[in-house]
3-dehydroquinate synthase
Amino acid sequence: MQSVSANTYSVHFNDKAYTELNTHLEKANYSKVFILVDENTHQHCLPSFMSQIFGDYNYEIIEIEEGEINKTIETCVQVWHVLSELDADRKSVMINLGGGVITDLGGFVASTFKRGIDFINVPTTLLSMVDASVGGKTGVDLGSLKNQVGVINLPKMVLVISSFLETLEERQLHSGFAEMLKHGLIRDKKYWNELNLVSDFNKLDEFIYDSVVIKNDVVMQDPTEQNLRKILNYGHTLGHAVESYFLESESHKTLLHGEAIAVGMVLEAYLSNKLTGLSDDSLNAIKKTFINRYGKVSFTDEDIKNILTYLKFDKKNSHGNINFVLLKTIGECQIDVIVSEDLLYKSFAYYKV
């Protein structure tokens, strides 16, 4: 599978990923190689990963607790202390072996330690393969508020090794698949239609590649999210609000990222139908796809009121306005759309029917 070239790095796949990593480590002559894992990737992914690295390098394994709840500045402080205690210097490298929490947090830690050391992303979840590890966004949450602190900084390389998906439960695969569906909605109707036919998650390599190409193409045109890159946030304005609320709520089961974004994409499809010309047929097709794959999340009126309070923290906001990315058609977006509070409530009413 051909590598995907970004601005200053490449995304490599499967066997070629290991070949490129070994070549890079040999040439770079790092003083130390730090591998950041959580308890799951330490057990299920690290042994096979290490078995494919050839060369006598000075390794240190750093383990953090798994889960979005640990994607915090407090965890970063712990990792920075460990790096200092283990004599990391500016010629060290951080390999982030894990899902979106590991690649986001690890990239941020590396980007800020001693004003920046090299890092390499090795995503092990479907979500991180097609989204979190590509594009240079790093960072952590601020309490339950998603990705409030971070920097855009590019890795030295991204290694997508699809065999790691065998370690995941089906719920995690569905979560990542939501981001792939989003790529079709914002950029490629044909891809959206193809994904709607997917029922076997054991045969995703081609689609993972297509999603990486779509995201990389957008990022290459707008690396710092001034205009076009905002389209990658379709479904995320309301989706992140839902995710944050459920993360903090004691009365609701926490949603995975893709599960919350699936809700957000239905809600924002309704807004698109009312404001940017998305057809009734497309709206109903989008709702049917996500409800069939992800089921419905139940919201009380009080839940909805509380969810909407999170919108003021969205990263796309500007000058006091909450800016949405909405669909004109399947495959084409409009950015910076302002939505009335009345329509936001109506979007939840549509979702619940």
Q: What stands out?
A: Residues 243 and 255 are 6 Å apart (CA to CA). The first helix runs from residue 14 to 28. The radius of gyration is 20 Å. DSSP finds 14 helices and eleven strands in the chain.
